[in-house]
Amino acid sequence: MKFRTVSLTDVSPDDRLRWQRLADRAADPNPNADPRFLHTSLGSGLAAEKVRLGIVETEDDFALVLPFTMARTLSGAPLRHATTSGEFMFDHASKYHP
């Protein structure tokens, strides 16, 4: 298994297909982490372009896809952190994680 991150805007057609297969076989599907929701939100002006995906994959398929956004810390320190409730997900999704 390996882990990688990719911007939602850079998801390849093959990655989208593998992501859709993962969503289709989920025991407890999360429509807010489904590519049909996230990928079609691109270009909507709703900040979906800021979403990144954390992907755990085997040689053949995806084992996990977690949408996240990089955000500034609340303390105002010049640090950023990954969050599943970034601007797009907080405003447009009711469930932020698988």
Question: How would you summarize this macromolecular structure in one to three sentences?
Answer:
The chain has one domain (2-92). Helix content is 22%, strand content 28%.
Number of strands: 4
Strand percent estimate:
25-35%
Cα-based radius of gyration, to the nearest Å:
13 Å
Distance between the terminal alpha carbons, to the nearest Å?
19 Å
Q: Provide the structure class.
A: alpha+beta
Order of helices and strands: EHHEEEH
Strands ordered across the widest β-sheet:
1-2-3-4
* Continuous helix count: 3
Biggest sheet layout? 4 strands, antiparallel
Task: Choose one word for the global shape.
Answer: globular
Tally of individual domains? 1
Helicity level:
10-25%
Unreliable spans: none
Average pLDDT works out at 83
Task: Describe what you observe in this structure.
With 98 residues, the chain is of the alpha+beta class. It has one domain (2-92). It is built from 3 helices and 4 strands. The chain has helices spanning 13-24, 35-38, 87-92; strands at 2-7, 52-57, 62-72, 80-83. Strands 1-2-3-4 form a 4-stranded antiparallel sheet. The longest helix is centred in the first third of the chain and has 12 residues, at 13-24. The model has no long low-confidence stretch (mean pLDDT 83).
